Amino acid sequence: MATSCDMLPEDVVYHILLWLPVVSLLRFKSVCKAWCSIIESSDFITQHLHLSKSRDNNKMIALTSKMLDFEGGPIFTLRFMLLSGNNFQMTESLDLPHRFDHRIEPRGMLVSCNGLICLVHRFYDHTIEDEVSLWNPATKQFRILPKSAVPIPVWDGGLVDFYYGFGFDNKTNDYKVVRIIHDDYILDGNQQSRVRVEVYSLNMDSWRVLDVVLPIDIHIASDPRTPYRDGIYCWSGWDSFMENGSVIYRNSILSFDFTKEVFGTMPMPDVYSFVRGSLVRCSLKLALLRENIACFEWVRDPPKTDNWHCKIWVLNEYGVKESWTKLYTVVLESRAFSKFISLNGMIIWLKWDRLTRNFSFRVCNPITQELMDLPFDQLDSNQDLLFANYKESCVSVHSAYCAASRVSAVVDV
Question: Which residue ranges does UniProt annotate as crossing the membrane (predicted)?
């Protein structure tokens, strides 16, 4: 007697499964060994992701700063919200499927790539080393990445700075995390700086130190939620040099190629190339706008307090300085703080109400100038949200070796 798996040709089953959401695919993995093998194959995951990208252009994930505290012991986790549609309606509230023994700071790192969320967990107890995790909200898979075998540098009386990036190496079909460690040390009574770069490979499930030198002595200024594009991750920052006895600060973009594992730099628009006289304040941020790298300048404390605004530039041709084009100047409300630009160009800002001393989030369409509120309760003055673009996928958070082991262990039903 024919089973349900034998009733349709395999290629027909394959193409039907491609169009199903992840929640359905998770159920159909239990139908039979053949279907499970299809759904967990790398070719299927890649094609399913490609279709998901073509139809899910208005999705975001937000990390709330409200941390859940469970009674009965020091156990902590984080809460997320999935937003979708042109109005970014909240479709689902998710708790991170992991409990921490130590209180974690909500201002860690949130980066999304092909349906995987890379998180950096920082603890209020700064003697505890950061933890890096990968999470797929669609499949519910979660894991803490192993620690690097190289000890973290320690400088008495100072801080060690960490900067992270997350992306995909399409040559080896590998997801990687890059970590830049910047620390200071004392040599012959003088303070010196040094940089170490490490890369985590999901395929190898391990960290290794890269023998690379940053192209410039750059100070990374942007938060880690800056764009990933075609295997390249970017941070905004600046370097400095002396000119006629004065310090000149130059805005720049530091990039990392996950395939070649090399760093590079890209210029900002000419209007932001040089800032003289004082240390650059982080008013420039990067975004990914319709698959192109963009930068936006949040103008704060202008001469007229009711004329806060945001300027958006897009890099039409990657790496070509002359292709920077100014798209919009969007007038914001007074005391509005630009936070994020979605993949389809919607600007999210944080609005502070001076009377109630509460924060709320608003969204602006830069073309129509239409405003709307994000569907959140008002946040008090101590709260904030982190945002990332999001695409649902079947990509596994486990290494290729672990995934192969799980497939071979599946029994037919």
Answer: none
Q: By CB neighbour count within 10 A (0-12 exposed, 13-18 middle, 19+ buried), where does 352 fall?
A: middle
Distance CA 392, CA 106 (A): 23
pLDDT in tens, 8-60: 777 888 888 888 889 899 988 888 888 888 888 888 998 998 888 777 667 88
Q: Could you give the residue ranges of the DSSP H alpha helices within 32-143?
A: 33-39, 42-55
pLDDT in tens, 309-361: 788 899 999 888 899 999 988 877 777 777 888 888 888 887 777 777 677 78
Sheet holding 59-70, edge to edge: 89-95, 75-84, 59-70, 385-389
Place of tokens 């689902």: 92
| Model confidence, pTM | 0.86
Centroid of chain to Cα 199: 16
- Domain at 57-391: CATH code: 2.120.10.30
CA separation for the pair 38, 288 (Å, rounded): 32
